[in-house]
Design goal:
Radius of gyration: 26 Å
Oligomer: single chain
Shape: globular
Strand content: under 5%
Number of helices: 13
Length: 319
């Protein structure tokens, strides 16, 4: 009998008493899709590049140790560490949202989730709000004065991405944002913000101008094309000299802050180590090669670390 003349098999009617089989394929595909989405969110928050967390964390640690006389409250320490991670993540999200039309034109940023359209702008805003709510919850664990400073920190985080389109020195504004945890830490631990706190804020403003100028040197050509302003463009051929001067000012401000806090030989040893790292960074950027400038930027993590180690050892071995 030919295939055309063969009777078609009748479909069996499902037994109403039959329990549907578990379909692991659907669950597996859902888990893969969810994992891929969470991965893109993590990339958007730059969790794979923790350098920003370290550059935010070290100033907070300096302030916590000085305000706590070498023994900061454990609960406050955890709150500030968590706040650093959350606020840095939120800052990356809102920065990429603001730059979503510029990043595709820059070689180093064109593969970011928003620029590559793997994450929608609405998703980014939702993620930013979610992180902001976590930050608010953390801030509510602090004293009223510290909460007030936390509001200022939130304003700095939100406004920075748009400021860099208006002024040529957004790095100094970034420094204020990165150093704002310092008055918050003093307010939380002591109920006041003394002169040493503002000296440390000055340190971070100068230091941020140093490392973010190195960062901007990586993208200088692309930034000039798309109209992004930076100190790397403003300084021009004088960039390396000005960076060296600002490094010297950073070390001097750190010295003054240590003197104000009564810190001794261990702290000064930490400053000497920081000076050595600064010298290494100047050597790296001597030819203005983008990859070397990026290495110099990342090296600033060790500057903050050795200052903290010296500070902590000073309190540990204090008589």
């Amino acid at each position: 009998m030919s295939a055309e003349l063969q009777p078609k098999p009748r479909k069996r009617r499902p037994d109403p008493r039959y329990k549907p089989a578990w379909k692991p394929r659907v669950l597996r595909e859902t888990a893969i899709a969810l994992g891929a989405t969470l991965r893109e969110y993590a990339l958007l928050m730059r969790l794979h590049r923790p350098i920003g967390i370290w550059l935010l964390l070290w100033p907070a640690m300096w302030a916590l140790w000085i305000a706590g006389d070498g023994r900061p409250d454990a609960k406050l320490l955890l709150i500030f560490v968590g706040g650093v991670v959350v606020m840095r993540s939120a800052g990356c999200v809102i920065n990429d949202y603001a730059d979503r039309d510029f990043d595709p034109s820059v070689a180093r940023t064109r593969d970011r989730p928003l620029a590559a359209k793997r994450v929608a702008p609405g998703e980014a805003l939702f993620l930013f709000v979610a992180l902001g709510l976590v930050a608010v919850w953390l801030a509510m664990q602090l004293d009223p004065l510290a909460r007030l400073y936390a509001v200022g920190g939130g304003v700095l985080t939100v406004t920075y991405p748009w400021l860099k389109r208006i002024v040529h020195v957004p790095q100094f504004y970034l420094g204020v944002a990165f150093g704002w945890s310092i008055p918050m830490a003093f307010a939380a631990l002591t109920g006041a913000v003394p002169r040493v706190a503002w000296l440390l804020v000055t340190v971070v403003v100068l230091w941020a101008a140093v490392y973010d100028t190195m960062y901007a040197m990586v993208d200088r050509k692309d930034d000039e094309k798309v109209g992004i302003k930076s100190t790397a463009i403003l300084f021009g051929e004088a960039d390396r000299l000005i960076i060296a001067v600002m490094q010297g000012m950073t070390l001097f401000a750190l010295w003054l802050a240590g003197d104000e806090a009564g810190l001794g030989i261990w702290y000064r040893a930490g400053l000497a180590a920081a000076a050595a790292f600064f010298a290494f960074q100047l050597w790296l950027i001597r030819k203005r090669e983008p990859e070397a400038c990026f290495r110099a930027f990342n090296n600033n993590h060790f500057v903050g670390m050795v200052v903290f180690i010296g500070l902590a050892l000073d309190y540990l071995y204090r008589g």
